[in-house]
C-alpha cells in the first residue's frame, strides 16, 4: 500500500513540475511580448527585436518539446509499471491457493485408490474447474518430471539420495511438491529430490 502512495505522490510531484515549467514558459513569453510593445519602433531596433523574439520563441518551443517528450516517456514508463502491477496483483491470493491445490491433488489420488468411479468423476470435475480458473488468472504449473536435469535456478532440492541408477545421478529422482509460475515469474519453486 505504501508503494501505491509513494507512486501517487511521485506522479503528483512530476505533474506539478510539468505544470510549473509550462506556466513559467508562458509567463516569460508574455513578459517579452509586453516589453516588445513598450519599446520605440525603429527599423533597426524592430528588426533586431524581431530576431531576438524569434530566437527566444524557438528556445521556448524547444524547451516545451523536451518537456513534452519527457512527460510522454514518464507516461509510457508508468503505464508499463501499472501493467506489470496488474499482471502480478493477484499473486498473493494465488500463492495462498497453492496449498489448497496441493491438498486437492492428494485427496484425488487417495480417492482413485478407493475405486468409486462416480465419486472420482465428480471430484475430478471440481478439480479441473479449480485448475482452469487458476490458469485463467495466469497461474501455470511447471512441468518437472523424474529424470529431468536438476537446475538450481528453477528447482529447489530438499534432499539428496543415492541415485537408484547411474543415469539418475545429478538428476531429479522425485518431485515432492510441484512448482508454479504466474506469467513469467516463478511464485513457487518445485521441491525435488536429487540423485547423487
From TrEMBL:
The keyword Cytoplasm applies. It is found in: Cytoplasm. The keyword ATP-binding does not apply. CDD domains: GrpE. Residues 27-53 are annotated as: Disordered. It comes from the Bacteria. GO terms for cellular component: cytoplasm. GO terms for molecular function: adenyl-nucleotide exchange factor activity; protein homodimerization activity; protein-folding chaperone binding; unfolded protein binding. Belongs to the GrpE family. Homodimer. This is Protein GrpE. It comes from Christiangramia oceanisediminis.
